[in-house]
Amino acid sequence: MTLPAATLDHVVINARDDMDRAADIYRRLGFTLTERGYHSLGSINHLAMFGTDYLELIAVPKGATTGRMDLMTFPFGLNGLVFGSEDSAVTYESLAKVGVPIDPPVEFTRPVKVAGKEHDARFRTVRMKAGVVPYGRIYYCHHFTRELVWRDEWRHHANGTVAVVRALIVEPDPAAGAKLYADMFGVEAVRDIKGGKSVVIANSRFDIVTEAELKSQFGDAVPDAEGRKAYMAGLTFRTVSVAKAARALQEGKIEGAVQTSGRLVVPAKQAMNAVLEFIE
Questions:
Q1: CATH superfamily, with its number, for domain 161-279
Q2: Beta strands 117-127 and 137-143: pairing type?
Q3: pLDDT at 18 over 80
Q4: pLDDT tens, 211-261?
Q5: Of 245, 250, 223, the residue nearest 31 (C-alpha)
Q6: What is the residue extent of each domain of the chain?
Q7: Average pLDDT estimate for 72-81
Q8: Contact at 8 Å (CB) between 215 and 222?
Q9: What is the reported pLDDT for 73?
Q10: Which of 144, 150, 224, 232 has the highest local Cβ count within 10 Å?
Protein backbone atom coordinates (compact mmCIF):
# COMPACT_ATOMS: atom_id res chain seq x y z
CA MET A 1 0.00 0.00 0.00
CA THR A 2 1.24 3.51 -0.82
CA LEU A 3 2.37 5.59 2.14
CA PRO A 4 0.70 9.00 2.72
CA ALA A 5 2.30 11.94 0.94
CA ALA A 6 4.37 14.17 3.21
CA THR A 7 2.55 17.52 3.25
CA LEU A 8 2.57 20.11 6.02
CA ASP A 9 -0.84 21.22 7.26
CA HIS A 10 0.05 23.32 10.30
CA VAL A 11 2.29 23.81 13.32
CA VAL A 12 1.04 24.36 16.87
CA ILE A 13 2.22 26.62 19.70
CA ASN A 14 0.92 25.46 23.09
CA ALA A 15 -0.30 28.34 25.26
CA ARG A 16 -1.56 26.05 28.04
CA ASP A 17 -4.26 28.20 29.73
CA ASP A 18 -2.80 31.60 28.84
CA MET A 19 -4.29 32.32 25.42
CA ASP A 20 -4.74 36.05 25.99
CA ARG A 21 -0.98 36.50 26.48
CA ALA A 22 -0.10 34.21 23.55
CA ALA A 23 -2.44 36.01 21.17
CA ASP A 24 -1.09 39.41 22.22
CA ILE A 25 2.51 38.27 21.68
CA TYR A 26 1.91 36.76 18.26
CA ARG A 27 -0.04 39.79 17.08
CA ARG A 28 2.89 41.97 18.18
CA LEU A 29 5.20 39.62 16.27
CA GLY A 30 3.32 40.74 13.16
CA PHE A 31 0.90 37.87 12.61
CA THR A 32 -2.73 38.45 11.67
CA LEU A 33 -4.78 36.09 13.85
CA THR A 34 -8.25 34.74 13.19
CA GLU A 35 -10.98 35.27 15.78
CA ARG A 36 -10.81 32.98 18.79
CA GLY A 37 -12.10 29.54 17.92
CA TYR A 38 -13.82 27.08 20.25
CA HIS A 39 -13.35 23.40 19.42
CA SER A 40 -16.02 20.86 20.24
CA LEU A 41 -13.26 18.93 22.08
CA GLY A 42 -12.87 21.78 24.59
CA SER A 43 -9.77 23.64 23.38
CA ILE A 44 -9.57 27.22 22.07
CA ASN A 45 -7.40 28.55 19.26
CA HIS A 46 -6.25 31.37 17.00
CA LEU A 47 -4.76 30.78 13.54
CA ALA A 48 -2.23 32.66 11.40
CA MET A 49 -2.99 31.52 7.85
CA PHE A 50 -0.31 31.34 5.14
CA GLY A 51 -0.34 30.08 1.55
CA THR A 52 -0.89 26.35 2.06
CA ASP A 53 -0.08 25.90 5.77
CA TYR A 54 -0.67 27.78 9.01
CA LEU A 55 0.37 28.46 12.59
CA GLU A 56 -2.06 27.56 15.37
CA LEU A 57 -2.05 28.88 18.93
CA ILE A 58 -3.91 26.41 21.14
CA ALA A 59 -4.94 26.47 24.79
CA VAL A 60 -7.62 25.50 27.25
CA PRO A 61 -9.84 28.22 28.77
CA LYS A 62 -8.73 29.69 32.10
CA GLY A 63 -10.09 27.59 34.96
CA ALA A 64 -11.04 24.63 32.72
CA THR A 65 -11.26 21.26 34.44
CA THR A 66 -12.49 19.21 31.47
CA GLY A 67 -11.76 19.08 27.75
CA ARG A 68 -8.25 19.15 26.31
CA MET A 69 -6.52 19.08 29.69
CA ASP A 70 -3.65 17.14 28.10
CA LEU A 71 -2.37 20.54 26.87
CA MET A 72 -1.56 21.41 30.47
CA THR A 73 0.87 18.48 30.68
CA PHE A 74 3.15 20.12 28.08
CA PRO A 75 5.29 23.25 28.56
CA PHE A 76 4.67 26.46 26.67
CA GLY A 77 6.09 26.46 23.15
CA LEU A 78 6.05 24.49 19.93
CA ASN A 79 4.10 21.34 20.68
CA GLY A 80 2.41 20.07 17.52
CA LEU A 81 3.53 19.24 13.97
CA VAL A 82 0.62 18.34 11.75
CA PHE A 83 0.58 16.67 8.33
CA GLY A 84 -2.14 17.02 5.74
CA SER A 85 -4.54 14.23 4.84
CA GLU A 86 -7.08 14.22 2.02
CA ASP A 87 -8.71 11.05 3.36
CA SER A 88 -8.18 10.25 7.04
CA ALA A 89 -9.61 6.72 6.71
CA VAL A 90 -7.08 5.85 3.99
CA THR A 91 -4.28 7.54 5.96
CA TYR A 92 -5.10 5.49 9.04
CA GLU A 93 -5.38 2.24 7.08
CA SER A 94 -2.11 2.81 5.22
CA LEU A 95 -0.09 3.67 8.33
CA ALA A 96 -1.59 0.91 10.48
CA LYS A 97 -0.75 -1.65 7.78
CA VAL A 98 2.98 -0.77 7.91
CA GLY A 99 3.04 -0.74 11.71
CA VAL A 100 3.05 2.98 12.49
CA PRO A 101 1.58 3.30 16.02
CA ILE A 102 -1.49 5.47 15.44
CA ASP A 103 -4.97 5.82 16.91
CA PRO A 104 -8.17 5.67 14.82
CA PRO A 105 -9.49 8.96 13.39
CA VAL A 106 -11.32 11.42 15.68
CA GLU A 107 -13.73 14.00 14.28
CA PHE A 108 -14.51 17.43 15.75
CA THR A 109 -15.80 20.87 14.77
CA ARG A 110 -15.22 24.58 15.35
CA PRO A 111 -17.66 27.44 14.62
CA VAL A 112 -16.26 29.98 12.12
CA LYS A 113 -17.74 33.34 11.17
CA VAL A 114 -17.48 34.27 7.49
CA ALA A 115 -19.15 37.43 6.14
CA GLY A 116 -21.17 37.72 9.32
CA LYS A 117 -22.57 34.18 9.13
CA GLU A 118 -21.58 31.29 11.39
CA HIS A 119 -20.52 27.96 9.91
CA ASP A 120 -19.04 24.78 11.36
CA ALA A 121 -15.50 23.95 10.26
CA ARG A 122 -15.12 20.16 10.37
CA PHE A 123 -11.93 18.17 10.89
CA ARG A 124 -10.80 14.61 11.43
CA THR A 125 -7.39 13.84 12.96
CA VAL A 126 -5.22 10.73 13.05
CA ARG A 127 -2.78 10.88 15.95
CA MET A 128 0.23 8.92 17.11
CA LYS A 129 -0.48 6.74 20.13
CA ALA A 130 0.35 8.27 23.52
CA GLY A 131 4.03 8.01 24.43
CA VAL A 132 5.29 7.32 20.89
CA VAL A 133 6.76 10.79 20.41
CA PRO A 134 8.69 12.13 23.42
CA TYR A 135 8.77 15.78 22.30
CA GLY A 136 5.13 16.68 21.57
CA ARG A 137 2.22 15.81 19.32
CA ILE A 138 2.54 14.45 15.77
CA TYR A 139 -0.64 13.86 13.79
CA TYR A 140 -2.55 14.21 10.51
CA CYS A 141 -5.45 16.58 9.89
CA HIS A 142 -8.20 16.00 7.33
CA HIS A 143 -10.12 19.22 6.52
CA PHE A 144 -13.71 18.76 5.33
CA THR A 145 -14.32 22.52 5.03
CA ARG A 146 -11.10 24.04 3.69
CA GLU A 147 -12.99 27.08 2.40
CA LEU A 148 -13.67 28.06 6.04
CA VAL A 149 -9.98 27.89 6.98
CA TRP A 150 -7.84 29.09 4.05
CA ARG A 151 -9.30 32.51 3.30
CA ASP A 152 -7.41 35.31 1.55
CA GLU A 153 -8.49 37.95 4.07
CA TRP A 154 -6.57 36.08 6.78
CA ARG A 155 -3.35 35.56 4.79
CA HIS A 156 -1.90 39.08 5.03
CA HIS A 157 0.64 39.60 7.83
CA ALA A 158 2.55 42.70 8.92
CA ASN A 159 5.72 40.58 9.13
CA GLY A 160 5.30 39.39 5.53
CA THR A 161 5.11 35.67 6.37
CA VAL A 162 3.91 33.44 3.52
CA ALA A 163 4.91 29.93 4.65
CA VAL A 164 6.43 27.67 7.29
CA VAL A 165 9.87 26.65 6.00
CA ARG A 166 11.16 24.55 8.86
CA ALA A 167 10.39 23.10 12.26
CA LEU A 168 13.24 22.29 14.66
CA ILE A 169 13.21 19.25 16.93
CA VAL A 170 15.88 18.43 19.50
CA GLU A 171 16.69 14.73 19.96
CA PRO A 172 19.77 13.25 21.66
CA ASP A 173 19.82 10.61 18.89
CA PRO A 174 18.51 12.25 15.70
CA ALA A 175 18.82 9.04 13.66
CA ALA A 176 16.57 7.19 16.10
CA GLY A 177 14.15 10.12 16.11
CA ALA A 178 13.98 10.13 12.32
CA LYS A 179 12.97 6.46 12.08
CA LEU A 180 9.29 7.25 12.74
CA TYR A 181 9.21 9.59 9.72
CA ALA A 182 10.98 7.03 7.53
CA ASP A 183 8.22 4.58 8.46
CA MET A 184 5.54 7.19 7.77
CA PHE A 185 6.82 8.59 4.48
CA GLY A 186 9.58 6.27 3.25
CA VAL A 187 13.33 6.35 3.82
CA GLU A 188 13.85 8.73 0.88
CA ALA A 189 12.13 11.51 2.88
CA VAL A 190 14.98 11.53 5.45
CA ARG A 191 18.29 13.30 4.69
CA ASP A 192 21.56 13.69 6.55
CA ILE A 193 22.36 17.23 7.75
CA LYS A 194 24.97 18.75 10.05
CA GLY A 195 24.17 17.67 13.59
CA GLY A 196 21.26 15.43 12.72
CA LYS A 197 18.61 14.45 10.18
CA SER A 198 16.12 16.38 8.07
CA VAL A 199 12.70 15.13 6.99
CA VAL A 200 11.42 16.60 3.71
CA ILE A 201 7.78 17.68 4.12
CA ALA A 202 6.61 19.06 0.74
CA ASN A 203 7.98 22.65 0.63
CA SER A 204 9.05 22.48 4.28
CA ARG A 205 11.30 20.32 6.38
CA PHE A 206 11.62 19.07 9.94
CA ASP A 207 15.21 19.25 11.20
CA ILE A 208 15.91 16.76 14.00
CA VAL A 209 19.15 17.88 15.64
CA THR A 210 21.16 17.60 18.83
CA GLU A 211 20.87 20.36 21.41
CA ALA A 212 24.46 21.36 20.65
CA GLU A 213 23.56 21.88 16.97
CA LEU A 214 20.49 23.93 17.91
CA LYS A 215 22.63 26.20 20.09
CA SER A 216 25.23 26.54 17.34
CA GLN A 217 22.49 27.90 15.06
CA PHE A 218 20.62 30.07 17.56
CA GLY A 219 22.88 30.71 20.55
CA ASP A 220 21.08 32.20 23.54
CA ALA A 221 17.81 32.50 21.58
CA VAL A 222 16.98 28.82 22.16
CA PRO A 223 13.97 27.82 24.29
CA ASP A 224 14.06 26.67 27.89
CA ALA A 225 14.12 22.87 27.70
CA GLU A 226 12.64 22.65 31.21
CA GLY A 227 14.58 19.46 31.85
CA ARG A 228 13.49 17.74 28.64
CA LYS A 229 16.05 15.82 26.62
CA ALA A 230 13.81 15.86 23.53
CA TYR A 231 11.60 18.80 22.60
CA MET A 232 10.25 20.90 19.74
CA ALA A 233 12.39 24.02 19.66
CA GLY A 234 11.22 26.48 17.02
CA LEU A 235 10.13 27.49 13.55
CA THR A 236 11.54 29.14 10.44
CA PHE A 237 9.12 31.28 8.41
CA ARG A 238 9.51 32.57 4.87
CA THR A 239 8.76 36.27 4.61
CA VAL A 240 8.52 38.47 1.53
CA SER A 241 11.00 40.80 3.27
CA VAL A 242 13.20 40.43 6.36
CA ALA A 243 13.16 44.22 6.61
CA LYS A 244 9.36 44.14 6.73
CA ALA A 245 9.47 41.50 9.48
CA ALA A 246 11.96 43.64 11.42
CA ARG A 247 9.66 46.68 11.17
CA ALA A 248 6.73 44.62 12.46
CA LEU A 249 8.76 43.49 15.46
CA GLN A 250 9.83 47.06 16.16
CA GLU A 251 6.24 48.28 15.98
CA GLY A 252 5.19 45.41 18.25
CA LYS A 253 7.92 46.30 20.76
CA ILE A 254 9.44 42.82 20.56
CA GLU A 255 12.86 42.99 22.20
CA GLY A 256 16.05 41.05 21.55
CA ALA A 257 15.55 40.14 17.88
CA VAL A 258 18.81 39.78 15.96
CA GLN A 259 18.99 40.63 12.24
CA THR A 260 21.81 39.47 10.01
CA SER A 261 22.07 39.15 6.24
CA GLY A 262 18.79 37.58 5.07
CA ARG A 263 17.84 36.36 8.54
CA LEU A 264 15.94 37.62 11.58
CA VAL A 265 15.83 35.62 14.83
CA VAL A 266 13.38 36.17 17.69
CA PRO A 267 14.50 34.67 21.03
CA ALA A 268 12.25 31.98 22.43
CA LYS A 269 11.61 34.01 25.59
CA GLN A 270 9.85 36.60 23.39
CA ALA A 271 7.65 34.06 21.57
CA MET A 272 6.09 31.72 24.15
CA ASN A 273 9.24 29.56 24.45
CA ALA A 274 9.69 28.88 20.70
CA VAL A 275 12.65 30.38 18.84
CA LEU A 276 11.43 31.98 15.59
CA GLU A 277 13.45 32.69 12.47
CA PHE A 278 12.37 34.75 9.45
CA ILE A 279 14.14 34.32 6.10
CA GLU A 280 13.49 35.50 2.54
A1: 2,3-Dihydroxybiphenyl 1,2-Dioxygenase, domain 1 (3.10.180.10)
A2: antiparallel
A3: yes
A4: 999 999 999 999 999 999 999 999 999 999 999 999 999 999 999 999 998
A5: 245
A6: 8-154, 161-279
A7: 93
A8: yes
A9: 86
A10: 232
